[in-house]
Write a structure and sequence with these properties.
By secondary structure, this protein is an alpha/beta fold. 28% of the residues lie in helices and 21% in strands. The chain is built from eight helices and nine strands. It has a seven-stranded mixed sheet, sandwiched between helices. A hairpin with a 5-residue loop joins strand 8 and strand 9.
């Protein structure tokens, strides 16, 4: 499977799949790679050379070489994991906080953002479901970021109004025509640095992919999922 799979996180990276924290007993986990070449005597003649070797590169690496792959059709490949955001970045960057409202199925997502030229540093603060606006305001205040300046999804003016009433500095994002695609294109032109503790953000970066048509071909339209 792909790298977001729990087996990769646990057995390869040595991380708890749910929290992203290092497991305390990593020596208890081991993995063994068994590829088609190791089992060639039991495979049909030509199967490796004539079939597996001619697969598209992502499938060849997965089914022939036995490698965990990136999600097929991933929109964002211009990112990497960092341990934390350093003081130098904080001093020389423009900071804001992004907020996407959610409640039952979709989560509320709050992300700390530092922009320094073409470098964007991201740190997940909140990713949770069934948070009322009052509960969300309490989380924001507990984090001490109520005065930083939050840019929220403008599709929920009532929620923005309620956060303002709770003394949260927040404004709605201005959205123009085709704002999703424009935002995706802008982000794809930058270098994204994501803190290791941002486990849900990392999962979404891995799983946010282009949509596919009935023939399985990718189209220049993102799926409506993993986009919080």
């Amino acid at each position: 499977p792909s790298k977001p799979h729990w087996t990769y996180k646990l057995f390869i990276q040595g991380e708890d799949p749910d929290t992203g924290e290092a497991v305390s007993n990593q020596q208890h986990y081991a993995h063994l790679r068994l590829n088609p070449a190791d089992n060639a005597d039991n495979l049909p003649d030509g199967y490796i050379d004539e079939v597996l070797e001619h697969l598209p590169e992502d499938k060849r690496r997965r089914f022939l070489l036995g490698e965990y792959g990136d999600s097929a059709g991933a929109i964002f490949t211009n990112w990497h994991i960092i341990e934390g955001i350093g003081d130098d970045v904080i001093r020389h960057s423009r900071r804001t906080i992004g907020l996407d409202f959610g409640f039952s199925v979709d989560p509320a997502a709050l992300v700390d953002v530092y922009v320094n030229g073409d470098d964007i540093y991201l740190d997940e603060l909140v990713y949770d479901r069934e948070l009322t606006n009052q509960m969300l305001a309490e989380r924001i205040k507990k984090l001490g970021v109520q005065d930083v300046g939050i840019l929220a999804d403008s599709a929920e003016p009532k929620s923005i109004h309620e956060l303002k009433a709770a003394k949260i500095r927040v404004n709605g994002a201005e959205k123009g025509p085709d704002s999703v695609r424009a935002g995706v294109d802008w982000l794809r032109s930058k270098r994204l640095h994501v803190t290791r503790r941002s486990v849900n953000l990392i999962t979404e970066l891995q799983e946010y992919v282009w949509s596919q048509n009935r023939d399985g071909n990718f189209e220049p339209k993102p799926i409506d999922d993993y986009n919080h």
